[in-house]
Design brief:
Layout: H1 5-20, H2 23-39, H3 44-53, H4 61-71, H5 78-82, H6 86-100, H7 110-114, H8 128-145, H9 153-165, H10 171-181, H11 184-189, H12 193-202, H13 211-226, H14 235-249, H15 253-265, H16 276-279, H17 287-294, H18 296-304, H19 306-312, H20 315-320, H21 342-357, H22 368-378, H23 387-390
Bound molecules: fe (ii) ion (3 copies).
């Protein structure tokens, strides 16, 4: 079964939730942007999605690592992102717009993301995308003013006054906000997490993703995972291309080989949530640290959508299996033998081979020959699919 746009955006939601903890802010901005956009005659789906993705650039590794270093993964929050250097914050709009330009469903709105912190004087009110960008800027401002957690009529009046008197916003955006903010239901909805999630989820369109769209999503996720650490800059990319090559050599056919390619691109997605101090520790990991490091596979499982998603899309399992071993000694579930299909074995093998050849904080990478020797000796069982003889 093919993936659709709704599944893609929900995956990105879980990624934001796990890695950056800006999921509530993103949902608030999506809800307000959609509501204002409807007043202005814009598409509901597009405003919902672009409002939600406006800060996707915060997932770039420089910022992720900085927040994780200072505050720890578990304590990453909107407040901590706001406390970062302003130089880095400006970057997120540009990086975010580049990411959005790779998502075909909304690629034409990439400038909206780039301009979402622009003040009104830099925008053209006759340009629809400029108005959209300013609507998001306004929604963003309101969302940040709600972080304090105050839920009083007095605070709401202050927020409304600040928006009405600010010169940061275009008249179009201010008028639309005035209309939606008149209703008490708006103020209760915008701070209720369940309502916000339902609002977001229910207005996502389910458009089928072509293979190219899926591969582009894989590229975005692969880029984010790989650039997180200098030791893994090309890790996923190498594994993805090697896996595709092995799949073709194993005569899996074009379509399945491309599915293996995508599965390999997202196999280490959960590493986005692994603390950089552990990923780059210059010595051997302690037992506790190993436990945290190995959890990346479980985070991948959660981000792709857990059991329900895997039952629907078999290929999501292939990447999740990459640390399993045929003798049952792997993790996270200790699967063995027949439970590990050929596609999973391809990614397992590619992962071991590439990891051996790469530098790690505590050792240099090995030569191709030595890596192949180790695989032949240590992982012979895992190569019983004859893939080794195909290389
Ligand atoms: Fe932003
Ligand atoms: Fe924001
Ligand atoms: Fe891994």
């Amino acid at each position: 079964m093919r993936f659709n746009t709704k599944e893609m955006y929900l995956l990105l939601f879980r990624l934001l939730q796990k890695v950056s903890k800006i999921d509530l802010h993103s949902l608030q901005v999506a809800y307000m942007s959609k509501s204002m956009g409807m007043e202005l005659g814009f598409s509901k789906h597009r405003m919902n999605v672009i409002g939600f993705l406006h800060d996707i650039g915060l997932l770039n590794p420089v910022q992720v690592n900085q927040v994780q270093r200072i505050h720890g993964v578990e304590n990453a929050s909107m407040r901590n992102w706001l406390a970062l250097d302003s130089g880095l914050q400006e970057n997120h709009a540009v990086i975010g717009s580049r990411i959005v330009s790779k998502i075909k469903d909304i690629a034409e709105l990439s400038e909206v993301v780039e301009k979402h912190h622009y003040y009104s004087m830099l925008l053209d009110p006759s340009n629809e995308q400029d108005v959209m960008a300013n609507v998001i800027h306004l929604a963003d401002t309101v969302s940040i003013s709600l972080i304090s957690g105050e839920r009083t009529v007095k605070h709401i009046d202050e927020v409304k006054q600040n928006i009405a008197n600010s010169n940061e916003f275009l008249e179009e955006a201010r008028d639309a906000f005035e209309k939606i903010s008149e209703k008490k239901g708006f103020w209760w909805s915008v701070v209720d997490e369940d309502t916000l999630y339902n609002e977001f989820e229910q207005d996502l369109e389910e458009n089928t993703l072509s293979n190219n769209d899926l591969q582009s999503l894989g590229d975005i996720l692969m880029y984010m995972t790989d650039v997180k650490s200098k030791f893994t800059t090309f890790h996923t990319e190498r594994i993805a291309y090697l896996s595709r090559l092995l799949a073709r050599r194993a005569h899996l056919g074009d379509e399945r080989s491309m599915e293996v390619f995508f599965a390999a691109k997202i196999h280490d997605l959960g590493k986005m949530a692994t603390p950089i101090s552990i990923l780059e520790k210059p010595g051997k990991l302690t037992e506790e640290e190993t436990f945290i490091m190995q959890r990346h596979i479980f985070d991948s499982f959660l981000i792709v959508g857990g059991r329900e998603a895997i039952e629907k899309h078999r290929l999501l399992q292939w990447g999740i299996n990459h640390h399993e071993r045929l003798d049952g000694s792997g993790y996270p579930w200790g699967r063995s033998g027949a439970e590990l299909d050929l596609e999973s074995r391809i990614i397992m093998l590619a992962d071991v081979f590439v990891a051996l050849t790469e530098d790690r904080p505590y050792r240099k990478g090995m030569s191709v020959e030595s890596s192949l020797d180790i695989i032949a000796l240590k992982y012979r069982a895992d190569c019983s699919t004859n893939m080794y003889s195909l290389s």
